[in-house]
Amino acid sequence: MNTDIRPIGVLLAGGLARRMGGGDKPLRLLGGRPLLDHAIARIAPQCRALVLNANGPPERFAAWGLPVVADPLPDFPGPLAGVLAGMRWAAAHHPNATDVLSAPTDTPFLPADLATRLAEARTRAGTPIACASSAGRTHPVVALWPVALADALEADLRAGMRKIDAWTARHGVAEAAFPATPFDPFFNVNTQEDLAEAERLAAEAGR
Predict the structure, then answer these.
(1) Which class for 129: exposed (0-12), middle (13-18), buried (19 or more C-beta within 10 A)?
(2) Are 49 and 115 a contacting pair, CB within 8 Å?
(3) Is residue 114 part of a domain?
(4) Can you say how many angstroms the Cα of residue 82 is from the centroid of all Cα atoms in its chain?
(5) How far is CA 169 from CA 25, 30, 103, 175, in A?
(6) Does 2 reside within a domain?
(7) Using CA atoms in the order 128, 132, 104, 64, what is the torsion angle rounded to 10 degrees?
(8) Domain assignment present for 85
(9) What angle separates helix 164-171 from helix 150-158, to the nearest 10 degrees?
(10) Are 206 and 34 in contact (CB under 8 A)?
C-alpha cells in the first residue's frame, strides 16, 4: 500500500508567452539555468511525482525526463485545462493520489513549504481547494486541487469556463497567505524586464 500522501505536481507551461515574443518561456535562462529548472527544484521535493503540461512537440522537453501532457481541450483554453491534464495524468498513473499541486513554470522562487501550507489552509477552511496569496493578491494558478473534481472541471471547461477564480469559487477555495519579503515568492516572469528583475532577486538571494 502506498502511504505517500504528497500531491502530484503539475507544472504549467501551456501558455503562448505572447508578452515575451512567443516561444517556450520555461526555456528562458535565469542565472544560466532554464526557468523550468528553477520550478522543478522548488516543487519536486514537495510532490510524489511531477508532470509537465505543455502544448506542441513534447520532444523539446525531453532533457528533463518528465512526462509531458497537452491540454485535453483545443484552442489553448487556459491554465484550468492544464490543471485538468494534471488531474487526468494523476488518476491514470498514481491512482492513490488524491491531489494535484499546480504551479506555473515562470515562477522561480516558489516557497519550499507551498504544498504543506495549502493543505493546512484547506483543512482549516473546510474547502476542497486552496490557492496561494501574497501582498494582498491571490495567485489562483498556484493551488492544491482534488483529483476527484476532474469530471466537474472538464464539464465546465467544455461549457466555456475559463476563469480560475470563478471556477474555484463554485466549489470553495481557501487562501494560504505567504510573506512578500524579502521578495514575493510568486514573482513571475512575463516580460524581458521581469526576467532582468528575477536575475537581480536571485543574485540578492545568493541563488
Answers:
(1) buried
(2) no
(3) yes
(4) 9
(5) 29, 35, 19, 12
(6) no
(7) -80
(8) yes
(9) 130
(10) no
User: What's the total number of domains in the chain?
Assistant: 1
pLDDT exceeds cutoff 90 at 49: yes
Which set of grid coordinates corresponds to residue 182? 524579502
- Give the list of residues 6+ apart from residue 198 with CB closer than 8 angstroms, or none: 30, 108, 109, 187, 189
pLDDT at position 200 is: 94
Per residue in 73-84, pLDDT tens?
998 899 999 999
| Structural domain boundaries enclosing 63 | 8-205
- Tell the burial category of 68 from Cβ atoms under 10 Å away from its Cβ (0-12, 13-18, 19+): buried
Mean pLDDT over all residues of the chain? 93
The pLDDT value recorded for residue 20 is 46
Using a pLDDT cut of 90, give the percent of the chain over it: 85
With respect to residue 87, please indicate whether it lies within any of the assigned structural domains: yes
Q: For position 171, which CATH number holds?
A: 3.90.550.10
